[in-house]
Design brief:
The structure holds 2 protein chains of 2 kinds. By secondary structure, chain A is an alpha+beta fold. Chain A has helices at 47-54, 77-83, 100-110, 115-128, 144-156, 174-191, 202-208, 226-231, 236-241, 339-344, 367-370; strands at 9-18, 21-31, 36-40, 62-67, 70-71, 86-89, 162-166, 194-199, 211-216, 219-224, 246-256, 259-263, 272-276, 284-289, 295-297, 307-319, 322-328, 332-338, 352-357, 362-366. Chain B is mainly alpha-helical. Chain B contains 6 helices and no strands. In chain B, helix 2 (26-34) packs across helix 3 (39-49) and helix 5 (68-79) packs antiparallel against helix 6 (82-108). Chain B is elongated and about 65 Å long. Classes of the chains: A alpha+beta, B mainly alpha. Chains A and B meet through helix 3 of A and helix 2 and helix 3 of B.
């Protein structure tokens, strides 16, 4: 039925349970050849299970997997053949108690490659991951970052058509993370490798992936480009997860050609926010504003931004190079500004400032829809 | 005699080998499978992962087996055949030495 489908990898109506507990429900996912797909979601959402099923390590309770046009059988030799066309890098790198060379060569040996071909490929990949000269070191004696690179090399040397990555940079130092990320995007570009990557680090998904899927509680709640997910989340749960810190309940009071006014004050006079939305008048909505889309100034700025509110600073916390400023402007608003500008504005508790954001920076989602997963 | 030895050491050998193999984590098995190992290839890898522990089990079994020489020494000595008892003792010492050397070599690899 689906055998002529152009999609490279497809999961159809997939569900999985351990005993009574469902860990995955109604997963429908398709990834084209060469796509980098990021699965983001909190720990325990089912990301690892989904990857394990895709790697054919586990048989799903319900549903089918299509790989390059073929429906994968639930048992039998074909599973090994198809598994050999992919590679899965597990979250905790498990290096074998062998030297680095043997670690990287084992996948090729299992596939019956010729000895001199193996030597050539391993040499090449060692150079690529920056582990030349490590051939005879026991892999167990390596540091976490090095072990992760061995694990990556061990998978990449197989030149898989599909690469599955489970939290490839968890527990690594920032420098190792940069190296691993560069390698991943290099491979994706050079070999046109299809990748599915599970991560809880949203910025990583944003950096590396063509498409992102949000997995919450065993369901894929939303898929789309990074911009879709981060700026137009489909419901409150996704919005919360992607760092949409300002989610303000309100109702649409007017709508002129796609410029909607939202009353967030809770009474008839209220406080009005202008937003770009086609939502009809009277609808109960959430107005979502990303904290980094808000600018702060000491006087009301004359700009194209349609929303400007007088606000009082209620709290300032420093997050590395940024400052997270909590404001009260009739409703609670959180803004992210650089630490320098927070110092320039002398942002302290009680300070009066103007908070400004554009109508295009406000994402409107309907409130009734918010809890309806299936719509 | 040989059958007796086998009966004597096989439970010991088996027990230690099983505990050695179960010391190899489930993740190693999963990793091997993910890298495209077939069933037999996975078993071989797991044996290699646990090679020192398996080796230790083999040595243990061997030690148990040659310990009957001690009994023979005691027997010969009590019969008054001191020369034979001494000879057996020297053989025992050499066997122990050789095994230790081999084991040390293997572990240093």
């Amino acid at each position: 039925m689906k055998s002529f489908s152009p999609t490279f990898l497809e999961l159809v109506d997939l569900s999985h349970s351990y005993g009574q507990r469902y860990v995955l429900q109604n997963i429908n996912l398709s990834v084209d050849r060469g796509d980098v797909f990021a699965l983001i979601g909190p720990t325990g959402a089912g990301k690892t299970t989904l990857l394990r099923i895709t790697n054919l390590l586990e048989v799903p309770s319900e549903g089918e997997i299509y790989f390059d046009g073929t429906c994968i059988p639930r048992s039998g030799k074909q599973r090994l053949e198809i598994r050999r066309r992919m590679s899965f890098i597990h979250q905790k790198p498990q290096v074998f108690n062998l030297n680095v060379y043997d670690n990287i060569a084992c996948g090729l040996r299992w596939r019956g490659e010729k000895k001199h071909m193996i030597a050539e490929k391993v040499d090449h990949i060692l150079e690529m991951v920056g582990l030349e000269g490590y051939e005879n070191r026991n892999a167990r004696t390596l540091s976490g970052g090095e072990a992760q690179r061995v694990a990556l090399a061990r998978s990449l040397v197989l030149e898989p058509e599909v690469l599955l990555l489970d939290e490839p940079t968890a527990n690594l130092d920032p420098l190792s993370i940069v190296k691993i990320e560069q390698l991943i995007s290099h491979v994706a570009r050079q070999h046109n490798t299809t990748m599915i990557m599970a991560t809880h680090d949203m910025s990583q998904g944003q950096k590396l992936a063509d498409r992102i899927g949000v997995l919450l509680d065993g369901r894929i709640v939303q898929t789309g480009s990074a911009t879709d997910i981060f700026h137009s989340p489909q419901n409150k749960e996704v919005a919360n997860f992607v760092g949409m810190e300002n989610i303000i309940a309100g109702a649409i009071v007017t709508n002129n050609d796609g410029i909607a006014t939202v009353n967030v004050g809770g009474n008839a006079e209220g406080i009005r926010i202008e937003a770009v939305s086609n939502c009809a008048v009277g609808k109960e909505v959430y107005a979502c504003i990303r904290p980094e889309d808000i600018t702060l100034a000491l006087s009301r700025t004359r700009s194209s931004a349609r929303n400007s509110f007088q606000a009082k600073v209620t709290r300032v916390t420093t997050l590395g190079p940024l400052s997270r400023v909590e404001l009260n402007c009739g409703f609670r608003l959180i803004a992210l500004v650089t630490k320098i500008s927070a110092e320039d504005l002398n942002l302290q508790v009680g300070r009066e400032v103007y908070a400004t954001f554009k109508a295009t920076g406000v994402h409107i989602m309907e409130r009734k829809l918010a809890n309806d997963w299936n719509s | 005699m040989v059958i007796g030895q086998i009966l004597l050491i096989s439970p010991l050998l088996l027990g230690f080998t099983i505990s050695a193999l179960s010391g190899v984590s489930k993740e190693i098995v999963d990793t091997a499978t993910s890298l495209g190992a077939s069933g037999f290839q996975t078993i071989w890898l797991v044996l290699r992962e646990a090679r020192y522990a398996v080796l230790a089990a083999v040595i243990m079994g061997f030690a148990r087996a040659i310990s009957v020489i001690t009994t023979a020494i005691a027997l010969e000595a009590s019969k008054g055949d001191i020369a034979l008892a001494m000879a057996l003792g020297i053989i025992l010492l050499f066997l122990a030495l050789i095994i230790n050397i081999v084991l040390n070599r293997l572990q240093q690899r």
